[in-house]
Amino acid sequence: MIDVEDLIALVRNYNPKTNADLIREAYAYGKEMHEGQFRHSGEPYFTHPVAVAAILTEQALDDATIITALLHDTIEDTSSTYSEVERKFGTDVAELVDGVTKLTNLQLSSSETKQAENFRKLFMAMSKDLRVILVKLGDRLHNMRTIKSMRPEKQLQKARETMDIFAPLAGRMGMQWMREELEDLSFRVINPEARNSIIRRFITLQRETGDVVHKITNDIRTELEREGIEADVFGRAKKPYSIWRKMEEKQQSFSRLSDIYGFRIVTKSESDCYRTLGVIHQRWRAVPTRFKDYISQPKTNGYRSIHTTVSGRDGKRVEVQIRTRQMHEVAESGVAAHWSYRDGVRAQNPFAVDPAKWLAQLTERFENSDDHGEFLEHVKLEMYSDQVFCFTPKGEVIKLPKGATPLDYAYAIHTRIGDSCVGAKVDGIRVPLWTRMKNGQSVEIMTAEGQRPQSTWIDIVVTGRAKAAIRKSLREEDRERFVRLGRELARVAFEHVGKKASEKALATAAKQLSLPSVQELLARIGSAELSASDAVKSVYPELVHASGDVDAKRAVLGLSEDQTYNRARCCQPVPGERIVGITYRGKGVMLHAIECPALEELESDLDRWVDLQWHSGPHGPIHAVSLDVTISNDAGVLGRLCTLIGDQKANISDMSFMDRKPDFYRVIVDADVRDVEHLHALMLAIEAESDVARVRRFRDLSKKP
């Protein structure tokens, strides 16, 4: 356990004017109150509050916060009272200790209803004094560092709660180092095998290549010295959880993963930051799209830094962060920098964010909500769930629904911005227009005079405002093209029920649908505002339901007569899903689901894109979809699974075993379905089977055309 004088020495390192006597008194009082109490490890309980206080000294926090750390469990776990703490150490400390006590009593991983109410209380505690959260985060960090002494089931509960709640909260507050450590400590409990595997690979890599971090650090220092730039250079391998997350997100093995090393350069001035950037880019080749300038566009929690990724020694990608000393202090402490001390006085850091303003930004969207459940949806994990809050380059907040894209963002600003959009940068990186936005991202829209909306945008956007604006623009700009496409779609739809799309039939359909003319009817069909089957139904309602399955050769609308199509094996789109066609030489048109990752490679090759949609009628069960099913290794389970799939009127066309373990099998089943509704019904039926542990759609990106 850290001695009181050692603790005071840690505080004096940044605050020589600290009230050492009051800290000694708090130390003695806490030790007395916890006398006879022990942790699961067998150590005296008071070792924990002292360790939390030591953690908070690393952020150069004020005396009140350090004393609160020493006393944070006294009101809850000892005979101490609020009034006694207030009398001995003042109202400020008493309120902080009381706030931490209330937070400790919140069961954040309890049932959803109770959890929602407790989340609201957590934010109420934050709004009174953010230092309460700082102490609680320090408390959780020490508990995670010593979690091995807990029961296994308790370890798992605490680790998941930390990963879901406290780690994202630390990150949101700008304390990235704490977020990374909390995530990695949780990862050690939740998936120890994966973490150990990554560590073993790091050891092997170091044995093969030597100390890469030391070599690159020396290379950077040499280049800076040559240019006369004074700076501190630090390098490190990224945390195992960070590596694991990248592997999962990119679906790549460790050996193929890039930028697993990170380097930080701390300069004397902002101008030196940009000089350093020039030195780095002159010496090493920069990786396109991997540059972010958070100095000119700081994050809301005050974070400022330049991020760039370059190809270093042996072609290894490394990430370099460049910042000044003051920026570095905020980057290490986040919002906590507001309370930090230097040489006995509150540090006047121009980049430190006022916690009151930061919290107001964070909570303004839901502070008046009376619905606990709605509140929980807003704050779970990254504080918000079904809504996304993005920032303009000027720091203004744009509210969008979950799943929104940069195009939705552009139209949310102004219809003119959306119509002329040619690209977008998210946090300084160029991204495809179909990218799904995440909370807290800064978005910059690039426009060009003469640019007009494309028909594929309809399937990219999710907001009604954007869809309406795009359709209006498309009608105005491409009315003639949509009329031609609509006429073809109508012809196919009428022929499907054995009728002709004559002018009289189309005029009758327009009248039945309350449209002013045949031209308007065809234009709306061509722009996907109205389906061709709706036009047929308005004239021949009795024939639509009796026409049988859609002809497989005519299942896709929008192809020319000489074009053939195939479903892409990488995403296996089925009727009912949004699709786009890509032309391939010698292969005809390949159908892709609109969210297929393979489309990213074709973003700049729009001439190959074809506007397509599935026929709206009933389709036959001929569309193979791969399902990844994990089942119990018991007699008869596989047979019951096959029977279950058959009962859902889906034929099994192929089956392969991916993994065989003593307790379970993992099997890939290819089932033929009618459409997306049939697929969902099939997956629900499989999921409900007691011997099925998991079922999900299997998409093999290695099978890209």
Give a short summary of the structure:
In eubacteria ppGpp (guanosine 3'-diphosphate 5'-diphosphate) is a mediator of the stringent response that coordinates a variety of cellular activities in response to changes in nutritional abundance. The chain is α+β, with helices and mostly antiparallel strands.
Write the layout of secondary structure elements.
Blueprint: H1 4-12, H2 20-33, H3 47-57, H4 63-71, H5 74-77, H6 82-89, H7 91-104, H8 112-128, H9 131-145, H10 152-172, H11 176-190, H12 192-209, H13 212-226, E1 231-237, H14 240-250, E2 261-267, H15 270-283, E3 285-293, E4 306-311, E5 317-324, H16 325-333, E6 341-342, E7 345-346, H17 355-363, H18 372-379, E8 387-391, E9 397-401, H19 406-413, H20 415-419, E10 421-426, E11 429-431, E12 443-447, H21 457-460, H22 464-477, H23 479-496, H24 503-512, H25 518-526, H26 532-539, H27 541-544, E13 556-557, E14 565-567, E15 579-584, E16 588-593, E17 609-610, E18 613-614, E19 623-632, H28 637-647, E20 651-660, E21 664-673, H29 676-688, E22 692-697
Parallel strand pairs: 2-5, 14-16
Antiparallel strand pairs: 1-2, 3-4, 4-5, 6-7, 8-9, 10-11, 10-12, 13-18, 15-16, 15-17, 19-21, 19-22, 20-21
Helix pairs in contact: 2-4, 3-4, 3-9, 4-7, 4-9, 6-7, 7-9, 8-18, 9-11, 10-11, 11-12, 12-14, 23-25, 23-26, 24-26
